[in-house]
Amino acid sequence: MTDFSILPMLQRRMQECLARREPFPSEIDPLVERQRKTREALLECLGARPAEVVAPEVRVEAEFPLGETKVIQERIVYRTEEDVWVPAHLYRPAFPKTKKLPGVLMIQGWDLDKHSMPEFKVRLAAAGYVVLFPDNRFSGERKHVSNGTAEQSNLLPVAGLFGLTFMGMNTWDNQRALDVLASRDDVESDQLGVTGLCWGGMQTWTLAALDERVKAVCPVCSVSTYEALLRDFIPWTGGHTCYGTYFWDWAQHGDVQDIIACIAPRPLLIQNNVNDTWFPVSGYHQVVREVSQVYRSFGAGDNFQHDARLTVHDITEEFGERVIGWFNQHLER
Questions:
Q1: What is the pLDDT of residue 148?
Q2: Residue 203 in contact with residue 134, Cβ under 8 Å?
Q3: Strand 145-146, strand 84-93: pairing
Q4: 5 and 238 in contact (C-beta within 8 Å)?
Q5: Can you tell me whether residue 121 is helix, strand or coil?
Q6: Which pTM was predicted?
Q7: In 3D, which of 177, 142, 167 has the Cα closest to residue 56?
Q8: From 3.40.50.720, 1.20.120.1760, 3.90.110.10, 3.40.50.1820, which CATH number describes the 7-330 domain?
Q9: How far is CA 219 from the centre of its chain?
């Protein structure tokens, strides 16, 4: 029977792109040049960016202690473009501000919001971090539904008129979130970390690849290759996938490991759930093999750690403890 699916064509195109992909060099100078070119290509694939960085005009709308947790929660609103405002929650230790603390940006999973992961974000703040957790575009308070259809389904094609992409708009907002953290008088501006779950983990390694202000990186349940997604995940789902997962035209430049390798030699901890069909374990191991080589080439093998275990799709207590430990080790307090 004739197969009329376009999946075989997409799988073929992926293999053709990967056949042209060069392995990572082992010498420092060519490796640094490879990172530079990858960042340039990534910026291009993320689409158009605003012409200027606007003042965030941060407003604190509420501030209150969280029970007996010794953590203060703030509700803040800030802007990332002239007419784009972001609602966020911020968590900080309740003890007196005797010195500046490291700042951590948390990024939500797909279709979650700033109310998610309630235990982990409080534990992270109690451990001595100022934690900023904003709503992404099209989520939480920024999600609008009309006639049962989410706004992004209707307006993303329109955004394409202006060269805008879903991941590109959110990456811009994440960079501006780092600005907000760095500008606080209780945050050490050169001690910033980022962590996220699932799609938020993808945003975590994308942001860190582009923005060297990020000193420690902890994506959770968010690492595989596009090759594995096309080979293992999409056939299993019958074609169902998530448009937030893909970078426009990226296969012409490489795969996920090329982006993640741009973080080296800064400290990177990757943790995955073996059960995650969204991030096939075969692709996870491919990323680990190649990124490990890059860190060794930089002489920074200890700055890259990874762990895949049979658990659930979440920043579990165990995953969370490792994230906090990683930040404790690599962010000065």
A1: 72
A2: no
A3: unpaired
A4: no
A5: helix
A6: 0.96
A7: 177
A8: 3.40.50.1820
A9: 7
Please name the amino acid found at residue 105. L
Retrieve residue 8's tokens: 């075989």
The rounded average pLDDT for each run of 10 residues, N- to C-terminus, in the chain (333 residues) is 85 96 97 98 97 97 92 97 97 86 96 94 96 94 81 84 95 98 96 97 98 98 95 78 84 97 98 91 97 98 97 95 98 88
Spell out the domain ranges in the chain. Answer: 7-330
Helix (H, G, I), strand (E, B) or coil at 72: strand
Token output for 101: 């603390």
* Helical H segments across 69-225, by residue range: 118-126, 151-159, 166-183, 199-210
Taking alpha carbons only, the member of 125, 135, 120, 126 closest to residue 89 is 135
304 bridge partner residues:
268
Whether 213 contacts 321, CB under 8 Å:
no
Cα 327 to Cα 333: distance, rounded to the nearest angstrom: 10
What would the two tokens of residue 140 be? 């939480």
**78 Cβ neighbours under 8 A, 6+ residues apart:** 56, 57, 58, 59, 85, 86, 88, 176, 180
pLDDT on residue 244: 78
Whole-angstrom distance, CA of residue 141 vs CA of residue 321: 29
